[in-house]
Amino acid sequence: MSGLPATMRAARFDAASKKLSVETVPVPAPGRGEVVVKVAACGICHSDLTQLDGHFTPKLPVITPGHETAGTVAAVGEGVSFWSPGDRVVVAAGRPCGTCRECRHGGGIDSCEKLEIMAFDYDGAWAEYLVTPAMTLVGVPEHVPLEQAAVLADAVSTPYGAVGTAGLRPAEAVGIWGLGGLGTHLVQLARICGASPIVALDPLPAARERALGLGADFALDPLDEATPDKLAEITAGHGLDVAFDCVGRGASVTQADRALGHRGRLVLVGMSPDQLDLGAELNFVRRRHSVVGHLGYRMKHLSDLVELVARGRLDVSGSVSAILPLEEAAEGVRRLREHDGDPIRILLRP
Ligand SMILES: [Zn+2]
Ligand SMILES: [Zn+2]
Questions:
Q1: Ligand 1 being an ion, which residues bring their Cβ within 5 A of it?
Q2: How close is the Cα of 220 to the center of ligand 1, in Å?
Q3: Euclidean distance between the first and final Cα of the chain, in Å?
Q4: Is beta strand 34-44 parallel, antiparallel or unpaired with respect to 69-76?
């Protein structure tokens, strides 16, 4: 009836054995208010590695990874009036729980207290098809490649949300630790926001070089002993207004925190199980520092980014480092894990 095939290929991760394999599984059917999307491409993200390494236990014992995707609408469920088969869409990487206080009050995806994360709480998009609530979709204009739209759904939208969390304003001094998928886009977004100066930090020379090309004013090696002094010098001794940590390791968070100036804000975007050392409590009080964790983005952020890319304000064409067939999911994971080719985003294409 829906015109969908009965089966599809999908990468499946078994949390108990930590095995990732590409298998033939049933194509999901759209429930009420849901849409089935034919996946055009899906990114491989560091948070996928965190799950594959066993640091996060998925809600399902066997789950399809991948939470950064775009494609075309293949089938719509009952009660879906806005979307039709063939529509080009980018898919938000989370869905509302439907039962929390905010959801009961009609808050939905942007305010849900227990937002379910695609590929962690329900099946993701390293697959030919994906089922998702209609409210998680944003339309993509014909001239924006779906591979670029896919990257927006986390690697660009999460830093875009983090810029909002930081309350970043023009002429503020910004440091960005970690120049992978998130940090590289933060450099571009900080530039759009008018931050100045923008200091990019990463141990990899190629990543630093790339950041300079995308709008960073300075690029430093965080492992260089002289880096704290250089940060002070760049900001004329005032320190940074905003530090974004996209690494999540204890050492980088500590360095980012120490580089903050008066009323400095540290925004934690990267993820790891590391313990944090934020130094003496009185530094936070006397220097009015704040530290805040950031995860995800709002639907408006995703549509903002489609607008910025569609109008040529934001160029993410360089963000698609490689596109591999879905069957080579494990090879894509290896390349990201080993920084092989210094990827911003490796995408899987079913
Ligand atoms: Zn991600
Ligand atoms: Zn909820």
A1: 45, 47, 154
A2: 25
A3: 23
A4: antiparallel
Kindly state the DSSP code that residue 282 receives in the 8-state scheme.
Answer: H
Domain 156-293, CATH homologous superfamily name and number: NAD(P)-binding Rossmann-like Domain (3.40.50.720)
Q: Looking at the CA of 106, name the nearest ligand.
A: 2
Domain range 7-139+316-349, CATH architecture: Alpha-Beta Complex (3.90)
Q: Where are the domains of the chain?
A: 7-139+316-349, 156-293
Query: What angle do helix axes 250-258 and 227-234 make, rounded to 10 degrees?
Result: 40
Between the CA of 112 and the centroid of ligand 2 the distance, in Å, is: 4
Checking DSSP bridges between strand 88-91 and strand 69-76, what pairing results, if any? antiparallel
The neighbourhood of ligand 2, an ion, using CB within 5 A, equals 96-97, 100, 103, 112
Task: Identify the nearest ligand to the CA of 116 by its number.
Answer: 2
> Could you read off the pLDDT tens digit of each residue along the chain, which spans 350 residues?
468 999 999 999 999 999 999 999 999 999 999 999 999 999 999 889 989 988 888 889 999 999 999 999 999 999 999 999 999 999 999 999 989 999 999 877 888 999 999 999 999 999 999 999 999 999 999 999 999 999 999 999 999 999 999 999 999 999 999 998 899 999 999 999 999 999 999 999 999 999 999 999 999 999 999 999 999 999 999 999 999 999 989 999 999 999 999 999 999 998 888 888 888 888 889 999 999 999 889 999 999 999 999 999 999 999 999 999 999 999 999 999 998 888 889 999 99
Q: Which ligand is nearest to the CA of 99?
A: 2
Closest Cα partner for 66 from 136, 23, 142, 130? 130
